[in-house]
Prior knowledge:
Elements: H1 21-32, H2 40-49, H3 57-68, H4 75-87
Helix pairs in contact: 2-4
Iron/sulfur cluster binds next to α1 and α2.
Amino acid sequence: MELCEKSDACSFFKNQLRLTPAISEKLKALYCKSNKARCARYKVTQMAIKGFYPADEKASTLVESMVGQMYPHDYEKAELVISNLQKG
Ligand code: SF4
């Protein structure tokens, strides 16, 4: 698989989240550079593309903020965001 197309705008990929470099590189290899479909961040942004996104500006800012702090393996946080998007 090729590099995730979201890497240029991804705070995780751009090393803006707190993580040791060794772990960050392992996660990039596991997700960004080989299997973006498994990435929690990617899954949430795909939901947004499919229209599951809050129309309310405050809620959408909250979602963007949560996603911006997520790691690729943050599945619990992703499930929480996705379930809220589906309700809303
Ligand atoms: S963390 Fe997820 S969304 Fe970001 S570049 Fe990697 S695979 Fe893509």
